[in-house]
C-alpha cells in the first residue's frame, strides 16, 4: 500500500465513452471543470467500452496506458469524468500510484473553493464528508494500524473505526446546523408570502449567464466570470417592475450534467428557492450548439428537486453572439414562453422585465372610494370581488372603501355602476394600457405591456369621491 500524495495539480484527464466515443463537447466541458478546480491539464486519455469494468472501470489494458501517460507527463493526479465506486478508486490508485479523483470529487472540490457564505460552506463540507465516508478503507496504510502504547494495548479501536466515528459525529453536527439554516430560510419565505411579494428564481446550466443577468436586473455586484460555477452562494434581491411594483429575484447554483447526488441533497435548502418560486427563469446559452441537451439536463435536475411542475420562461441569453435580435415569443394562448436578450449588453432587458410582470398577474390599482347611502349595489359589487381592504362609515350614512383590484375589473365595475364619468386621467391611462395590450397581442408584436403585483408598501391609493354634482372624481 502506498501513501497518497497530499498535493499536486498536474492532472491527466480520462474520459471513456460507453457504447460510443466521447463527444467533443463533453471533453471540452470536462477540461473546463478541471481548470476551474485549478488543475494544470497535461493530457487527455479517451476510449470506448461497452460497459464499465467492475474492478478498474477502464479495463486493465487502458489502465496500463494511463499509467504510462502519467509517468511520461509527470502527472500527479488522474481525474476520471465518471462516478467511480470506492473500490474502483482504490484499485486505480494502487495501480497508477497517484491520486485518483472522479467527477463527483472534482465538482465537490470546485464547490469547496467557491463557497463563501456560512450556509454554502456547511453544505459543501457535508457533501464532501458523505463522499469521503465511503472511501476510508485502505486509503492510507495508517488506517489499518492498531492504536498502541501503555494502557492502549489489547482489542482497542482501529484508526479506521476512529475516523469513521469522528466523521459520523461531524456529519451529525453539520446536519443540525443546516436544519437551523433551513428553519431561518423558511421563516424568511413566510414573511415574503405574508407581504405578498412574489419570488422569481433564475435556474440554468452553469456558465449560461445567470449571475450577469441577475446583476443587470437588480443592480447587484455579484461575482460573475466566464467559468463553470463562478458563483455558488445563493442571492436574493428585489427587482422593480412597472408601476412601482416589486418582486424578489433569486440566483441559484448552476446545474451540470451528472450533478452529484451528494450535492443535490446537501443543497436542498438553496434549491428550495427554486421549488417555492412563483416563476422560473430558465437561462439558456443561445450560442451553445448543444443547448437542447442542456435544457433537458436542467429540467431533469429540476424534476429531481421537485420543481418540474413550476411555470417557466425560457431566457435565451447571449443572443447577440449569434446575431439574434431581442424579442418575445408567445404560445397559442398568448402567454410568454421565450425571451431573447443579451445580459452583457442589456439588449432586450425591458422585454424580460415586462414579461415577468405580465406573468405575475393583471395590473393592480388601489383606490379610496366614497359612496352615498343609496349606492349599496356598488358597495356590494366591490365586496363580491374581494377587493375591499378597509371600510369606514360616514356621518351621512355613506361608506368609504379602500379597494385593491385588477385595473380592468376596476374600470368595468366603475362603468357598470355609473362611476365612469368620475374617472380621472390616471384611470383613463389604465383604459389606454388595456386597449394597447389587446392591440399588441392581436398584432403579434414584441412589445409587452407590463404585468402586475401589488406593492402594499407603495404610495397611498387615490381617492374616488362623489361630490354634490353626482360625478365621481379621482384625487391623486
TrEMBL record:
The family database entries (Gene3D superfamilies) matched by this protein are listed as: 6.10.250.2860, GTPase HflX, N-terminal domain, P-loop containing nucleotide triphosphate hydrolases
Sites binding GTP sit at 204-211, 229-233, 251-254, 317-320, 342-344
Q: Where is this region: Disordered?
A: 450-476
- Alphabetical UniProt keywords: Cytoplasm, GTP-binding, Magnesium, Metal-binding, Nucleotide-binding
Q: Where does Mg(2+) bind?
A: 211, 231
Source domain of life is Bacteria
Please state where this protein is localized: Cytoplasm
Cofactor(s) the protein requires to work: Mg(2+)
Entries under PROSITE patterns matching the protein: G_HFLX
The Gene Ontology terms for molecular function here are:
GTP binding; GTPase activity; metal ion binding; ribosome binding
Q: Which PANTHER family match?
A: GTP-BINDING PROTEIN 6-RELATED, GTP-BINDING PROTEIN HFLX
Give the UniProt family note. Answer: Belongs to the TRAFAC class OBG-HflX-like GTPase superfamily. HflX GTPase family.
Q: What name does UniProt use for this protein?
A: GTPase HflX
Q: What is the lineage of its organism?
A: Bacteria, Pseudomonadati, Pseudomonadota, Gammaproteobacteria, Steroidobacterales
Q: Which gene encodes it?
A: hflX
